[in-house]
Amino acid sequence: MSDEAKRPNVVLIMCDQMRKDALGINNPHGIAHTPHLDQLAREGVNFTSAYSACPTCIAARASLFTGLSPANHGITGYHATTVWRYPTTLAGTFAEAGYHTQSVGKMHVQPPRTLVGFHNIVLHEGFLHDKRRNYRNAIEYDDYLPWLRERLGSDADITDATPGCNGYAVRPWPWDERYHPTAYVVTKAIEFLYRRDPQKPFFLKMGFHRPHSPLDPPRTYWDMYEDVKIPEPLEGDWNDSYDAFGHYHHPENPIPRDPISVKRARRAHYALVTQIDYELNRLFIHMGDLNVMENTVFVFLSDHGDMLYDHRMVRKSVPFEGSAGIPFCIRMPAGMREGFRGITNDKPVEIRDVFPTLCDICGIPTPEGLDGENVLSPDFSREYIHGEHPCGRWSNQFLTNGKEKYMWRSDSGRELLFDVSVDPFEKHDIAREKPERTAYWRALLVKELTDRPEGYVEHGSLIIGRQPVAALPWAGIGKAAWEKELKS
Q1: d(CA 255, CA 109)
Q2: 12 touches 299 (CB < 8 A)
Q3: Considering the domain boundaries, does residue 121 fall inside one?
Q4: Is the sign of the CA dihedral 267, 269, 271, 274 positive or negative?
Q5: Is 110 a domain residue?
Q6: Domain residues for 287?
Q7: At a CB cut-off of 8 Å and minimum separation 6, what does 136 contact?
Q8: 259 vs 3: which has the higher pLDDT
Q9: What is the CA radius of gyration of the chain?
Q10: What CA–CA distance (Å, rounded) separates 90 from 258?
C-alpha cells in the first residue's frame, strides 16, 4: 500500500443554519435527539466555544474553503454575486496531496459549479432565488431537482412542499422521506464511497441545506418531538423590538409570531437536525461495510445558527449564541485517537480553523498565509475571535473569547457585553455595569477595524454610521492575492 493510501480519509460535514444547542450533547434542556452525532462527539473532541465569525451562508463557506478570516477573504456579509477565484483552497490542497476529493450537497459559491479544488461536485444548494431567476435549466446550478423530477414527474418542484425557503411556517415533508434533500445528500455520498478511487485516500465534504428553512421535516422525525416540551424563546433585559428583522418578511416567507407557530418552528428545527443525524448513520453503516470507518477523521459543524425567536429574532447574521454559536466536533481515526477521545474543549475556535487542523491531522503541509490554526495542537491558544455582519440597523461587529462577548452596533454605536460563562443565554447586558471591561473590548475592536476601507475608525475611535459592506475590494480572491495583483 502506498504512503498516500495510508493517510486518513476525511469526512467533513457542514449543516446550514444549525444551532449549537441542536446537537444533543450541547443541549442544556435535553431535548435535542442526535444519538449518532453525540456518539461521534464523545469519541472525539467537542468544542463548546465554536463560532461563525460572519454568521451567514456564503461568508462562512469562504472561511471554510480558504482558512481565512472574513476580513481577509473579503466576504463580510451575504454577497451572492462575488466570483470565487481564491488561489488556495482546502479541497485543492488535499487534491494536490493525492486525495480523491468530492463534494455533495451545498456549496454556495459563485458561479455555482465552481469546483473550488474538488475533483467533482454533486450540488444541492436549496432554494436560491438568484439561481432560479438567472439560469434557464436547473441542471446548471442544481443536481437534486432533476433527480427529484425523475422520481416525481417532470413538473415537480421543491416549492411543491409549500413552506417558503426563508419562512417559519411549518409543514412536514409530503413525499417519501427518501426523496428529501437530506436523504439525497447521504445517498449521493454513499454512491461516492463505492465509486471512489480505491488507491487514494478520500476527502468527502457533505453540505446539508437543512435545518435551514423550509421547515419541512419528514413525519417520522416530526413525530419524535410530539411529546417533547419545547422551551420558550429566550428574553433578555436588553431586548429590542422584533421588527428589527422586519426586512425578512415576504408573502412567501411568513414569520408568524403566535405562540403555537413559534413552538412549531422550534420543534421543526430540532426534527430536521434529528433527520440529519439518522441519515448520517446510514452513511456510517456503509463506511463500516467498506472498512473505512476507523481510518477516517470526521469533522462536524454548521455554517451558523438560527435565532429561532430567541430575543425576538429569527434567522442569522447577529452575534448572539443562537446565530453565531455553532456545533463543532472532531473524531480522529482509531489509530490517532489517544488523547483526543472524550474531550470537551472550551477554547474559542472558528470555521477557518478546519483547514489547517485537517492538514496537520493528515500530514499535509499547511499552506502559508492562513488565519486558521490547528485547534488540536497542544500549543493552540487564541485571545479572542472577531466577527461581523451588515444587517440593517443590527449591523454589527463583535468579539468573544468564549467567556465574554462584546458587541458594537455600527449604525447606532450601542454596545452590549455579556458574561457568557455565567450567562450563556445572554439575558443580562453588563456593558454599563462593567465599564472597564467594555473599554477593554472596545480598544480591541478599534485595533481590528483600523484601516478598514469602511472607515470604522478615525483617530483611534469607533465611528458611528459608517456604511457596512458585504464584500470588500478583495472578495473572491483574498487580500494577499489581491495586493499581489495590484503590485504586478
Answers
A1: 27
A2: yes
A3: yes
A4: negative
A5: yes
A6: 3-375
A7: none
A8: 259
A9: 21
A10: 44
- What is the identity of the amino acid at 444? L
The CA distances from residue 310 to 168, 233, 302, 306, 316, in Å, are 13, 5, 18, 9, 11
CB of 211 closer than 8 Å to CB of 22: yes
Burial of 482 (0-12, 13-18, 19+ CB in 10 A): middle
Q: Which residues contact 226 (CB under 8 A, 6 or more apart)?
A: none
Classify residue 222: in a domain, yes or no.
yes
Instruction: Catalogue the active-site residues.
Output: 57, 108
| Burial class of residue 156, CB neighbours in 10 A (0-12, 13-18, 19+) | middle
- Alpha-carbon distances, residue 428 vs 236, 238, 325 (angstroms): 6, 7, 18
Nearest-CA neighbor of 278 among 192, 204, 189, 183? Answer: 183
Q: Under 8 Å CB-to-CB from 62, ≥6 apart: which residues? A: 68, 70, 73, 74, 75, 84, 86
3-class secondary structure, 70: helix
Model pLDDT for residues 243-275, shown as the tens digit of each residue? 445 445 567 788 899 999 999 999 999 999 999
Amino acid at 297: V
Please give the model's pTM, rounded to 2 decimal places. 0.96
Distances in Å between the Cα of 369 and the Cα atoms of 73, 266, 373, 485 are: 11, 40, 11, 16
pLDDT in tens, 367-413: 999 999 999 999 999 999 999 999 888 899 999 999 999 999 999 99
Q: Calculate the CA 121 to chain-centre distance.
A: 19
pLDDT at 264: 97
What whole-number distance in Å separates Cα of residue 15 and Cα of residue 268?
15
Query: Please, where are the H alpha helices in 20-175?
Result: 35-42, 57-66, 70-73, 90-96, 129-134, 144-152
Residues 6+ apart with CB under 8 A from 240: 312
Judge whether 130 and 112 are in contact, CB under 8 Å: no
Question: In Å, how far from its chain's centre is CA 429?
Answer: 26
Secondary structure of residue 81 in the 3-state scheme: coil
Q: What is the C-alpha separation between 72 and 432, in angstroms, rounded?
A: 32
Please count the structural domains in the chain. Answer: 1
State the residue for C-alpha cell 473569547.
Answer: 401
Write the DSSP assignment of 304-354 as a string of letters.
Answer: ----TTGGG--SSSSSSHHHHB--EEEE--GGG-TTSSSEEE-S-EEGGGH
CA distances from 453 to 48, 371, 457 (A): 33, 20, 10
What CATH number should be reported for the domain holding residue 267?
A: 3.40.720.10
Q: Considering the domain boundaries, does residue 405 fall inside one? A: no
Buried b / exposed e across 306-333, counting CB within 10 Å, b at 16+?
Answer: bbbbbbbbbbbbbbbbbbbbbbbbbbbb
